[in-house]
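Budget justification aside, the reviewers requested a transparent look at the raw inputs and outputs of the sequence design task funded under Objective 1. We therefore reproduce one unedited record. The lines immediately below are the structure tokens for a 88-residue chain.
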């Protein structure tokens, strides 16, 4: 499997449309800062500030997992039969 590239115009796609994108088989990988973790993953332990991390999200934006490498996020998506796309 390879990572797909999907481009959307800002404001052009509703949350409901994103949720149905790929019939539940699409997820996206987004680079985040460790300072953003508590808002996305409230159950996560405290993480040192200033770290670059990667979050895997369902197409509707629901956080799925957090890791320190983009490759691990993509591998997790594949292991859960999800097609991973990147958000820039």
């Amino acid at each position: 499997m390879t990572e797909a590239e999907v481009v959307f115009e800002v404001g052009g796609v509703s949350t409901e449309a994103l949720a149905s994108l790929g019939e539940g088989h699409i997820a996206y990988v987004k680079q985040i800062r460790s300072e953003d973790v508590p808002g996305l993953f409230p159950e996560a332990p405290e993480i040192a500030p200033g770290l670059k991390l990667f979050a895997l999200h369902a197409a509707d934006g629901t956080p799925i997992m957090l890791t320190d490498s983009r490759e691990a996020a993509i591998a997790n998506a594949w292991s859960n039969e999800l097609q991973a796309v990147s958000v820039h």
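The beta strands are 26-33, 52-58, 63-67, 83-87. The radius of gyration is 13 Å. Computational costs for records of this kind are itemized in the attached budget.
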